[in-house]
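Exercise: predict the fold of this chain.
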Amino acid sequence: MSDASNPIVLYDIASAPPITPYAPNPCKARYALNFKGVHYKTEWVDLPDVPSVRKKLGVDPVRKHQDGTPFYTLPIIKDPSTGELVGDTFDIALYLDKTYPNSGPGPLFPPSTIGLHAAFNTQVDALFSPFAILCGHGIRFNPETAEKSKAEFLRRAGKENWDDLTVRGEDRKRTLKAFEAELGNLAKFYNFEKDGPFLAGKDATYADFIVGGWLR
């Protein structure tokens, strides 16, 4: 069991000072850790340092770029109480439920819902990803590594110019309108259960943290 003297380590992507969480997938993991009520601390990593940190920890990448090269990203958790390293957001939530079943107000995944959560995660990621261009210029990069971080974003997006990662004027209005329509469709899922604010009603589940990670 994790405790205050031996907490889980969450590796997250650093913003500019004062450092705050901003990346969707690490936020999903952070919400899951908070929900389970386990002790953890954050190890902040500048975006250009993510590949070297992941390699040093010996955690293989779980994604690939479009050209087939490894996509080194975060989050990762290291649990000193078990020696486990987990380097995928969804797998982190599964690990927390399995390793700490009695922690927190309940399970992240109610019985027989893991597959449904996996499908929902894919759907939500596909909904939000095309609209990340709306906030690219608002990312608070660490000034000391900002240019390297921008170069990494461009590589991930397959773009050559930082201005290509934004939309302005009428294009922005159209993109916002399309985004609002997609959010409206997503919001309908919250109308099925009337006894609370969450997808499952009064009880939060990992599905809510999937959405919350993007909204953060």
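Check your answer against the key: The CA atoms of residues 133 and 165 lie 6 Å apart.
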